[in-house]
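writing this on my phone so excuse typos. first protein, seq and then structure
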Amino acid sequence: MSVIEDLWSEFRLPIRNALYFRDGVSYEVVIDPDSPSGLRVLQSFDLADYVASDPDWTSEVDGLTSMEREDGDLLWAGDGSYGSEGFVARLRGDRTLVWAIFLTDSNPFTEIRTSGRGATFLSTSGVRITLDVDDPRA
């Protein structure tokens, strides 16, 4: 089991602006309102090293909205342990992680809109990110 799968089993994510995949591949991200997606995916980083350096630097996530997909997967979004945090994720029907994005300064995500493979997530502070749910790096 990967580090992110271990954390997700307790509905926790590292406190870092990042995109996490089930296999442990992780990328730094930044909110970018000028980007068509509202988000820029940056360089990858070693999640195992990051978590090992400060294993308690995680946030418990709580879903505030969800949307079931035709394939049985689920889009899920909500908040973290602190008021400024938000997350969006794609899960399998059994709630195992496909990918998740955690943001420290987005505020909670409370709305999901879908169109084909795309999904737009809206936060209470007006952050809007639009992703290809099959590959959120695109």
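second protein below, same order as before
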Amino acid sequence: MQKEVEAKIQTLGSRTNNAQLILNHLFQRPIIDAKKAKKLINLSLPSVYKLIDELESLEILTEITGAKRGKIYLFREYTKLFST
């Protein structure tokens, strides 16, 4: 699964390295928000949200709060490995 996800992020071009940093974090803690992602990749919030949107499009992240603000994202495919 890790190789599949890493192959998906290779399609992000110049944002691949930042996506990889987020992905590395997600394998440790599969829930993330934009503030945490900003700390990890040290970009502006608009850039972070754009990257998060792309990770959602690639079906790596899923927004789980349904909120307009303070959204939390889940690395769903990874967490499925641990459910019965």
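The chain has a mean pLDDT of 94. thats all i got for now
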